[in-house]
Amino acid sequence: MRLLVILILFLPVLQPLSAKPDTTLTFDEVLISGTSSVNFFPIDSIQGNQQSSNSLNPLHYSSINLREYAPGGIATFTFRGTTPQQNEVFWNGLRLNNPMTGLTDLSLFPLFLFDAVTLHPGHNKNLDFSGFSGGAILLNSRGQADTVGAFRLKLENHLDQVSNRNHFIDLYNHRGSTAFHIRGQLRNARNNFSYKNPSGEQTTAEHNHLNQKSLIAETTTQFSNNRNLSLYAWLQDTDRQIPATLFQSRSKAVQRDKSLRAGATFTSGKGPGLLLLNAGFIAEQLIYKDSLTSEFSDSDIYQFQTSARYQIQLLPNFPVQGKINYQNNRIHSTAYEDRVEENHLDLGFDIDYEGLWDDKLRMGLKVRKGFGTRATTPLLFNAQTVFLAGPETLITASWGTHYRLPTYNDLFWPTLGNPDLKPERGWNAELGLRSRQMKFIDLVRINLYLRHTDQMIYWTNFGGTWRPENLSAVRAKGLELRIEQRAKIGDVDMRWTAAYDFNHSILTEERFPGDPAKGKQLPYQPKHTVFGSLKVNWREFTASVQWKYSSTRYVSADHSSSLDPIILGGIHLDKRFSVVGLDWQVGIYADNVLDHRFQSVNQRPMPGRLMGMRLITKFTK
Questions:
Q1: Cα(271)–Cα(269) distance, rounded to whole angstroms?
Q2: Tens digits of residue pLDDT in 310-361
Q3: What distance in Å separates the CA atoms of residue 562 and residue 525, rounded to the nearest whole number?
Q4: Which residue ranges make up each domain of the chain?
Q5: In this structure, are residues 88 and 95 in contact, taking their beta carbons and an 8 Å threshold?
Q6: In 10 A of CB 55, how many CB atoms?
Q7: How many CA atoms are closer than 13 Å to the CA of 367, on its beta-carbon side?
Q8: Within 10 Å of residue 221's Cβ, how many Cβ atoms?
Q9: Distance between CA atoms of 596 and 615, rounded to whole angstroms?
Q10: Spatial separation of the C-alpha atoms in residues 379 and 122, rounded to whole Å
Q11: What are the residues facing 77 on neighbouring strands?
């Protein structure tokens, strides 16, 4: 509450100004209040590349490290040498991380449903600052409103050679001050591909099916220029067969995931600033059963999230923001002896100063203090500075702290949990350079980062059994390079991108005397990643190529076993045309063209080269 008291004390010196919208994220920029656009961190956006029956396909060619347990199975992700639990996923401002596991299964979130999927590898002060050490994925289905009277209907269908089908509908209607938007997806993945089972026999993946139904409905009403209300709901039902494990020639395990996610956002100019209220509710049921091993679990999860944010300006170049966030989690699971309930309250304060040093320097600070049922979060901060070194060149720097509690599964999962786990905490620093319109390159981005974490929570394999433990200390350092170029020759419009990521994440202190893992790269973290794309438009044709190289990933902490380096490649070709007042697009694609095994766990069923086609029909007025 002290933060609110400080805010009130400043009210007498406020200068009148019109209410301004909250910070707006674009492809690779952050809009600065009343001034120019700059980029704090490397932001990658997944748009226009969803051309495969596998809705996770664009993420395979991005900066994240995607860890999959065969198609249709659980898919988690990491940034910059983190663990999956150290990263977050947001949908329209709602945090989607599972409170039991602390991570997010990306197989449950079809990318077709969103206007933009934006990747934030590191701390970004303009996002909701959670204090986690990793990055975030923003799923945005609240796109920019079309003009009044706009109507759009889009149908999209995918089919590939292993009988995977994906059907998508997008309906938009804007009448008066209210816009309605409905999206639905029906995915049926038979995954009837061949693979070698643990016995070395060639077999068909008959027990790897996925059936998924999703529906997102949203409505936005604009009451005035600075006042609007958005309501949104997301219904989803996923039924899938879990791939065979290392110790099974076939699997009888199935998992059912049913969820309802709903929220409301109200924005209003209030006094000299902007008031933003957000509330959301998430209900999930997770059922797992395996007839071969007689395992069964049934979990019901309920989350309520709400936040209030008020943004003002003390001076023309002095924006200030205060925020209160409250979250309630309730879990009833056969895995726990008692019903679990947790309350958590966060108080945040964000202050910036623009226009230093002849309007070339901006500095900002965000602090956060959390109060929860399990523990009180220490005071966390994130400080940043941006220097305009030239008309199109920016230098950025940041320093911050992070803190994370063990999840409920970390502590209490039957026979595997570790009730003695300690919270992890540490610090992170980053230095970046961004430059546009160089002689032969449109955009160059370079980032250096360093992160130190004490008592990092990590699930380790002990003789075939996975259990969480606190690693003594982990140090991650890395380099990120992005290059982008566009060119136009006659009717041909080309764009190519190239990227390189170096990440060195090691255990810097022994867990026990003679620990063979000390100084070695953490499991499942590639040290080198190179990826790029080429997209060519010629009249009504579009062709694109994507590829990604990942270096060796070690499976064990002592590097006694590993996964080989891999190169993934994808090719897409589309043609657009109009018939009877409708816009059509037909395309063909080939994924994993080099026929590599890109699995994260050895001997899991994994498709080889995948070929398919898609058809899009669109009507607009």
A1: 7
A2: 988 877 778 888 999 999 999 999 888 888 899 999 999 888 887 666 678 8
A3: 11
A4: 2-620
A5: yes
A6: 23
A7: 9
A8: 13
A9: 27
A10: 19
A11: 66
- pLDDT, residue 253, reads 82
| Listed residue (58, 6, 178) closest to 531, CA to CA | 58
Place of tokens 């100084």: 519
Question: Average of pLDDT values for 231-247?
Answer: 83
Q: Measure the CA–CA gap between 113 and 139, rounded to whole angstroms.
A: 9
Amino acid at 244: A
d(CA 459, CA 448): 27
Q: DSSP alpha helices (H): ranges in 317-436?
A: 356-359, 408-412
Q: What is the mean pLDDT of residues 276-291?
A: 91
For residue 412, the SS3 value is helix
Name the one residue in this structure whose structure tokens are 């959301």.
Answer: 280
**CA distance linking residue 187 with residue 549, whole number of Å:** 29
Mean residue pLDDT of the chain comes to: 82
Residue 50 in this model has a pLDDT that exceeds 80: no
CA angle 322, 327, 331 (to 5 degrees): 170
User: Is the pLDDT reported for residue 526 higher than 90?
Assistant: yes
Torsions phi, psi for 421 (to 5 deg): -65, 145
Other CB atoms within 10 A of residue 359 CB: 12
Structure tokens at 358: 């002849």
Name 316's bridge partners: none
For the stretch 186-190, contacts whose Cβ atoms lie closer than 8 Å and that sit 24 or more positions apart, written own/partner, are: 186/212, 186/213, 187/55, 187/110, 187/211, 187/212, 187/213, 187/214, 188/164, 188/212, 189/53, 189/71, 189/72, 189/164, 189/165, 190/162, 190/163, 190/164
The 8 Å CB, 24+ separation contacts for 409-412 are 409/100, 409/101, 409/102, 409/335, 410/102, 410/457, 410/468, 412/335, 412/336
For residues 128 and 265, what is the distance between their CA atoms, to the nearest angstrom?
15
Q: For residue 380, which phi and psi values (nearest 5 degrees)?
A: -110, 150
CATH number, domain 2-620:
2.40.170.20
Is the per-residue pLDDT at 300 higher than 90?
yes
Tokens 């058809």 belong to which residue?
615
Q: Residue 366: CB partners within 8 Å, gap ≥ 6?
A: 125, 129, 348, 349, 350, 351, 381, 382, 383
**Under a CB-based contact definition with an 8 Å cutoff, are residues 22 and 276 in contact?**
yes
Residue 78 burial by Cβ neighbours in a 10 Å radius (0-12, 13-18, 19+): buried
Specify the pLDDT at position 20: 32
End-to-end CA distance of the chain: 51
